[in-house]
Amino acid sequence: MPDVTYANLLAGRKVLVTGAARGLGLAFATAIAEAGASVAMADILADRVNESAATLKARGFNVVPLQLDLNDPASVRACANAAAEALGGLDGLVNNGAVTDSGGRGLTELDIDTWDRVMNVNVRGTWLMTAACTPALRASGRGAVINLASDTPLWGAPNLLAYVASKSAIIGMTRSLARELGEANVTVNAVAPGLTLVEATEYVPQHRHDLYRNQRAIQREQVPDDVCGAVLFALSDLARFVTGQTLAVNGGFVMQ
């Protein structure tokens, strides 16, 4: 990977990142901290998020670990309030937390409990977290919400129905929220990564990885750092007049 620096791009910002214990979420939290922001790192994996935050604190960054269960509305509200209190407000929210429980199951194999869990965490959780953070984002005067979608609904990935449906909903919610929050100068955008090499995608069979790699314009595996630039851009003043958009970051597998 090229040596890229984001120094001072987000200086003074206060950002909450969900699903920040590992994978893409940890990459986002790290890049946001490196760009000068204070970061609240929230995750259901309490021990793991504490460890990840401790590593960043040891590097001199201002980060706060928080526990979050996106399937529990009370936990979502408590996390949003704790983040705003710990950081002294919120300028940004990265809705990254999600589950991929439906992976590998066909239409007739998918069960209702799995469908409901994916929708509750990915869709309802994003709605509730955004709503809980909205007062602080409005007060900021320069609030930014980044919703993590996926490129799977852009090409119709098979055997992933609940997840694809949930990420399609995220794209639609992003557009609606952009209209609703624009009057308060709060931008809302979606970032749609392709298949990325993280722990959460270890279940994906090799032939799917091969499909992605071979059909990308840039033919290599996608890693978390590939997605960080889009998230930092959307959080920054460079994107103050960009809202309601979905940016696919997948090396050219899907082109819009």
Describe the model.
The chain is of the alpha/beta class and 256 residues long. Strands 3-2-1-4-5-6-7 form a seven-stranded parallel β-sheet, sandwiched between helices. It is globular, with a radius of gyration of 17 Å. It has helices at residues 23-34, 46-58, 73-87, 112-140, 152-155, 161-181, 206-215, 225-235, and strands at 14-18, 38-43, 63-67, 92-95, 144-148, 187-193, 246-249. Helix 3 packs parallel to helix 4 and helix 4 runs parallel beside helix 6 (161-181). Strand 2 (38-43), helix 2 (46-58) and strand 3 form a beta-alpha-beta unit.
Strand-pairing-aware structural class: alpha/beta
Percent of residues in beta strands?
5-15%
Return the string of H and E elements: EHEHEHEHEHHEHHE
Mean pLDDT: 93
What is the tally of beta strands?
7
Instruction: For the largest sheet, list the strands in their spatial order.
Output: 3-2-1-4-5-6-7
What kind of sheet is the major sheet? Answer: 7 strands, parallel
> Helical stretch count?
8
